[in-house]
């Protein structure tokens, strides 16, 4: 296993690759490979071991009441999958985890993670930092989901990407990926893009976005 790559995972930040190899040698773990479309874990599965993506990327997705698949998040190497669900009384995965391409993951059982965190204060600190960051992410996600219309969601998304200062920036994903992220159809999202451009709020050139009326976007979400 590539311990240099694994040491770049946020969970193991600041831990020397040699030290990390020594830590893991003390506890059981496994390395598994998957191909595109494989399900690594299903919603409501007990999360008995932390999975860390070593190669490739996976996506977390769930099926809503209408049967539509909604993508929650992409997770690329070298990042852990759902670390917040490793512990707790009901530590079951809230989403299906599906391989986006050829994927290799290391699976560290819960007892092994407890031992590693007891042996390394750096790993323990990293884990606590990740939990705090995750709480912030979920808080922002809930705020995003509180917007009822696609127009409100898109306005908030663009303002967030601009970081309050940028006028021109690039979208990190294409329209289909963005539609999946919003939980809407691509055609519905495309209409909102066109409406915003027609109203003089923004200008789009493929993934390049220029904010023409920041205050107008702010008014949409108020």
From TrEMBL:
Which GO annotations describe the biological process of this protein? Answer: regulation of DNA-templated transcription
Q: Which PROSITE patterns match?
A: CNMP_BINDING_3, HTH_CRP_2
Note whether RNA-binding occurs among the keywords: no
Query: What terms describe the molecular function in GO for this protein?
Result: DNA binding
Q: Which organism is it from?
A: Acetobacteroides hydrogenigenes
Question: Record's superkingdom?
Answer: Bacteria
InterPro entries, alphabetized: cNMP-bd_dom (IPR000595), cNMP-bd_dom_sf (IPR018490), HTH_CRP (IPR012318), RmlC-like_jellyroll (IPR014710), WH_DNA-bd_sf (IPR036390)
Record's Gene3D superfamilies? Answer: Jelly Rolls (2.60.120.10)
Domain (HTH crp-type): give its ranges.
148-215
User: What is the protein's given name?
Assistant: CRP-like cAMP-binding protein
* Keywords per UniProt: DNA-binding, Transcription, Transcription regulation
Q: Which SMART domains match?
A: HTH_CRP (SM00419)
Where do the Cyclic nucleotide-binding domain residues begin and end? 11-134
């Amino acid at each position: 296993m590539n311990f240099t790559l694994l040491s770049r995972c946020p969970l193991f930040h600041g831990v020397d690759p040699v030290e990390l190899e020594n830590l893991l040698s003390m506890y059981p773990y496994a390395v598994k490979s998957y191909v595109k479309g494989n399900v690594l874990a299903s919603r409501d599965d007990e999360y008995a071991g932390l999975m860390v993506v070593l190669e490739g990327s996976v996506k977390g997705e769930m099926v809503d009441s209408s049967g539509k698949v909604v993508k929650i998040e992409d997770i690329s190497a070298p990042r852990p999958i759902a670390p917040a669900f490793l512990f707790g009384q009901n530590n079951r995965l809230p989403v299906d985890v599906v391989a986006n391409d050829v994927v290799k993951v290391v699976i560290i059982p819960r007892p092994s993670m407890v031992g590693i965190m007891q042996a390394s204060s750096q790993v323990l600190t990293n884990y606590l930092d990740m939990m705090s960051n995750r709480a912030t992410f979920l808080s922002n996600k809930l705020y995003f989901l509180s917007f009822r219309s696609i127009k409100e969601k898109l306005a908030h998304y663009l303002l967030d990407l601009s970081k309050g200062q940028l006028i021109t920036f690039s979208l990190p994903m294409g329209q289909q990926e963005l539609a999946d992220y919003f939980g809407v159809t691509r055609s519905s999202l495309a209409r909102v893009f066109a409406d915003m451009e027609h109203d003089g709020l923004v200008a789009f050139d493929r993934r390049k976005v220029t904010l023409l009326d920041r205050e107008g976007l702010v008014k949409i979400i108020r």
